[in-house]
Every structure is written in C-alpha cells, then in structure tokens.
Write a structure and sequence with these properties.
Length: 298
C-alpha cells in the first residue's frame, strides 16, 4: 500500500504552485533578456536599466567596423535573436541585415528612431544600396536623449518597472555635456568638414559644422583619381587645415589627399564598438570627437 500512496503524493506535489517547470523564456527567475543591436543602443539601454530587477542586456554587433550596410548575421547572432524577449534596435534602416530574422522572432521590438527628425541619406559611394534616411541618429546628443526616453518608456511598460527617474538623470548628463561641447565648438570660425564616412551628418548639423563632402569607401579600396582631385580642390579652395576619417574606416585616400594638399588627417569616432556599459563611454567618445575638431581647426 505504501508505493501507491507515495505515487499519489508525488502527483499532488507536482500540481502545487512553484513545483512545476516554468515555460521557457517567461519565468521571473530567468528575468527579461534584452538584446541591443548596436553599441550605442546597448550603452543607452544599460544606462536606463541600471538598478532594474531581472533585466539582462546583451549586445548583438560589437565589431570594429564603421559600416553595417553589408553586415551578415552569424549563427551566434541568430541564436541571440531567437533567445531574446526584447530587441532594442537603432532603426531608420540601420539594421536591414536583420529583416528576415526579425520576421521570424517573437521578441518585442523597441525602435529607437521613433520621434526623431530623420535626415535624408547621403550617397554611398562604393555601395550598391539605396537608403532613404541617414540612420546615424545617435551622433546628435539631442537625438540620444530621445532614444534614452524611448527605451526607458517602452521597457518600463514591458517590465512594469519605473525607469523614468534613472532615464532623466542620464538625459541630464547628456544635455550638460552637449552644452559644453557646443561652447567648445563655438570658439571656432565656421569650420567646414570633409569626412571619409557618411555618418557625420547629424553630428555636423547639431554643432554648426558645414559638411562639404562625405565619402564612404569600401574596405581595401581607394577613391578614383577624379575624386581625389575634387577633394584636393575643396581643401585648397576653403584652405582646410584637416580632413577626417572614421576610427574603423579606411585612410588610404585621406592620406593621398594629405600628401597632395598638405592638410592634416584626423580621426572621428562613430562609437560602433567598445567594452564599456552605461552612458559614460558615449560621453567620452563624443568628447574626444569635439576635442579632435577643436584641435584640427584651432
């Protein structure tokens, strides 16, 4: 008689709350898995979720690259997307490489480009794609504040936690730094930029910099002789002391122009990769960009 009674007791215990196995990806013990697509979005997400309970944020793309136009998802990327409860993306067309994966995912998606005044895309020399909008929205600190607010608001609704206080604190840090950066740049006399990446349109607009020309080269390739001649002519016409490459981009054409015209070559950072979390790496990178502009034109 003991064995049947024991079996009945075990059956009853398995039906009690807390004794059953929770559905995959939905238990409070497992928490909420949040996947940020790019490094800037990852920094903003970790900034506003600092101190939040049960929220685990991971980063999808963290490579030393200046361009995601031709990025291809890896097997590990696909697994990360499949395991995510929430995907926080930059939007504005930056993550076109994820379209198929997103259509097959059950994750809730937060688009950080919502509510932002998008600029038309610039030409992509060397690329065979046509984007409607410029997706490099985080390079304007005012846009970064909007992105922070979008993440805090939508993640707060999903988690049931109030993330607004932390978000406001971070937004104030960005705004304070932004005012300081604008003061630094205001000391310069109408600086004009030639960049070797198409991602500095928002940056130029917010800091009152005239963007004369932006060239994006394919890795390992150089601009044509005609393009080099055109840029050298602009450098000489406006007596530019410097032209600007991107930290992870090609420098071959810029160095050729430097030899031809005598201008300096400086690097600006698109903040596409890094090791830190929270808002500080973003503030540091933007400060370095401003310092570089001031040094080049000062």
């Amino acid at each position: 008689m003991k064995r049947p009674i024991l079996s009945m007791l075990l059956s009853v215990l398995l039906l009690l709350p807390g004794c059953t196995q929770a559905p995959s990806g939905s238990s409070q013990e497992e928490g909420l898995t949040v996947l940020a697509t790019t490094y800037p979005v990852y920094l903003f997400t970790t900034a506003v979720t600092e101190g939040a309970e049960g929220v685990e944020v991971s980063l999808l793309v963290n490579q030393q690259t200046s361009c995601l136009h031709d990025y291809t998802l890896t097997v590990s990327d696909m697994k990360a997307i499949e395991g995510a409860d929430v995907i926080v993306m930059n939007g504005a067309g930056l993550e076109e490489f994820m379209d198929d994966a997103l259509s097959a995912s059950d994750a809730q998606v937060i688009d950080c480009s919502e509510g932002i005044d998008l600029l038309p895309a610039q030409g992509h020399e060397g690329h065979d794609h046509d984007a409607e909008y410029d997706p490099h929205i985080w390079m304007d600190p005012a846009n970064a504040q909007v992105m922070l607010g979008t993440i805090a608001d939508q993640l707060g609704q999903i988690t049931g936690q109030d993330l607004q206080a932390r978000c406001t604190e971070v937004q104030q840090q960005v705004e304070q730094a932004n005012q300081q950066w604008k003061e630094q740049v205001s000391t310069l006399s109408a600086p004009k930029l030639i960049t070797f990446h198409d991602g500095f349109q928002y940056f130029s607009r917010t800091f009152g910099l005239e963007l004369l020309k932006a060239i994006e080269e394919e890795e390992g390739s150089e601009a044509s002789a005609q393009e080099i001649k055109e840029i050298v002519s602009l450098v000489e016409q406006y007596q530019l002391p410097a032209i600007f490459t991107e930290v992870n981009g090609s420098e071959s054409t810029a160095q050729a122009i430097s030899r031809e015209s005598g201008c300096g070559v400086y690097q600006l950072n698109m903040i596409m990769s890094g090791d830190g979390t929270g808002i500080q790496p973003y503030l540091d990178a933007m400060q370095n960009n401003i310092d570089t502009i001031v040094e080049a034109f000062g």
